[in-house]
Design brief:
Number of helices: 3
Structural class: mainly alpha
Helix content: over 70%
Number of domains: 1
Shape: elongated
Order of helices and strands: HHH
Distance between the termini: 65 Å
Strand content: under 5%
Number of strands: 0
Length: 134
């Protein structure tokens, strides 16, 4: 397969959109963490504590997701620079690394989404328990 300097340039919008999505998820999660911390301080409930534990794991995953996304973007830029210098083999290798990093970012993002659904299930189970008692 022949790639040239425009090939990694095609990834720029995709990587930056991924980074934006990860940042938005982080901001939403940070807001939830603040809300649940206040809830827990008011009433140290087990359900709230489970959510806070889930948030801790998800924040770590998001940190690594963003880190890997930035690395993917950096390797993409390095790849373009190597093409510019005429170092085709090195550029091909760096481009492959960039793609692998992007895949890792997507996998981490899927993991975080899976945990997010678990957090929602905890909330829904609380409603089901309340309905069962009433």
């Amino acid at each position: 397969m022949d790639i040239n300097i425009t090939t990694p340039a095609l990834l720029f919008p995709a990587i930056t959109l991924l980074m934006l999505a990860h940042t938005n998820r982080f901001l939403a999660l940070a807001s939830l963490v603040r809300q649940f911390r206040a809830l827990y301080e008011e009433n140290p409930d087990e359900k709230v504590y489970k959510q806070i534990k889930n948030f801790h794991i998800r924040l770590n995953i998001l940190k690594y997701t963003q880190f890997v996304s930035v690395l993917s973007f950096l390797f993409c830029v390095i790849c373009m620079f190597l093409f510019f210098l005429g170092r085709i083999l090195a550029a091909d290798i760096v481009f492959a690394i960039s793609l692998l990093l992007m895949m890792a970012s997507l996998i981490l993002s899927l993991w975080e989404i899976y945990l997010s659904v678990d957090a929602l299930k905890v909330e829904l189970s609380g409603i089901e328990e309340d309905r069962g008692q009433g």
